[in-house]
Write a structure and sequence with these properties.
alpha+beta; YchJ-like middle NTF2-like domain-containing protein; single chain; about 25% helix; about 160 residues; 5 strands; Nuclear Transport Factor 2, Chain: A; YchJ-like_M; five-stranded antiparallel sheet; NTF2-like_dom_sf; 4 helices
């Protein structure tokens, strides 16, 4: 029998031991980084229900019809490949409960590099960590290699 597949979030763990319990609703990610990793894996595996569930109530997409957002997420996920994720920096929740994660997502669409660096904001909603917002930049918009950035050096 072949070994279980590695998790798309690039943690080095097997999917069943990493993001699968989150996607199956068996557990909530313990922190913002794990939530972000689970969302990357959800895009890679087309787990669009998880992507919807993990949007913070104040995220703009939550004001739109759920079916419409799910349809768009599904189309986006199906059109792209997600070979690698690099987490460069993270910030624990501040006094207002805002946590941040800086990551470099390798993403391809029909062979074209659509990779980006994003500073994501997360808040706990009483049940779990949720994606609030993000600022994304293409590597060509950066003056330095993406992997060299930190939250402090990410362009505002």
């Amino acid at each position: 029998m072949p070994p279980a597949p590695l998790c798309p979030c690039s943690s080095g763990l097997r999917y069943r031991e990493c993001c699968a319990p989150f996607h199956r609703g068996e557990a909530e990610p313990p922190d913002a980084e794990r939530l972000m990793r689970s969302r990357y894996s959800a895009f890679a595996l087309r787990e669009v229900a998880w992507l919807w569930k993990t949007l913070h109530p104040h995220h703009p997409d939550r004001a739109r019809p759920q079916d419409e957002v799910l349809r768009e997420l599904r189309a986006f996920a199906q059109a792209h490949q997600y070979p690698k994720l690099v987490v460069m920096d993270r910030r624990e929740p501040d006094a207002d409960g805002l946590a941040q994660v800086l990551f470099f997502a390798k993403v391809f669409e029909k062979g074209k590099d659509r990779s980006f660096v994003e500073r994501s904001d997360f808040r706990h909603d009483g049940t779990g960590w949720r994606y609030l917002s993000g600022v994304a930049l293409a590597p060509k918009e950066l003056a330095v290699p993406p992997e060299s950035l930190t939250l402090a050096t990410f362009p505002r």
